[in-house]
Each structure stands twice: as C-alpha cells, then as structure tokens.
Amino acid sequence: MPSDKKSNIENFKEKIIEDIRPWGKFRSFPYEKARSIKIITINPGGALSLQYHNFRSEFWITLDKGLEVTVGEKVWQPEEGEEIFIPRKISHRLRNLGQKQARLMELWIGDSDENDIVRLEDDYGRG
Fold it and tell me: What predicted TM-score, i.e. pTM, was given to this entire model?
C-alpha cells in the first residue's frame, strides 16, 4: 500500500470523537463510514467461523464478559468495552467461553455485504 494512502481503519480511527462531560464522557463513531452495525449474540460454547473478508475491515466493541477473540495469530479474552480493529483479509473469530450469552457490537468499514465471508474453519460444517 502506498505510504500516502491511509487504510480504511486509519481513516475510521481519525474520525472517532471523545467528548468529556461533567457526568463522564461519550465516544462518537463515524457511522457514515459503516456499511453495517450489528449486535452479535453468541450462545455459551458457540463460535463464529474462523474467517476473513476481502472488502471490509471490522470494528468490534465487546459488550459482555466470556468472549474469546482471535485476530490473526493473537488469541485473548477481551475486557467489557474493549475496542478491536480487524483489517480486511486478516483472519478472525469469536467464541463464547462463558456460561451465558455474550454480545459484541460490530461495525463494517468498507463496501461489503454478508457474502464477503471467506471461512477457513467452521464448527458447523459451513463452507
């Protein structure tokens, strides 16, 4: 990638605004850059496929404890509210290691749809 061209994640990050107020703060995300905004709920023991996307990057915010995240070679259990950026073409997966449903908010960054999934591994036999 040429050095003068920023990735869609870098462009997205630059437009995140944090505003401090007397009662706390808020973070505003550039929704006009998002193709989809989802809340994903994963059942205990459930897992999304290990996958990547050709046309979109993703931005995740964990909403509950119990999740295990894989991005590339890194695997960890994020804190509630942790923000995770996943560049396009990087493998990633979510698992729920907990005893109750766990949620994550997902924003797509880039022009994409549900067909932009390349599954590398899948617990449910999907190709």
Answer: 0.81
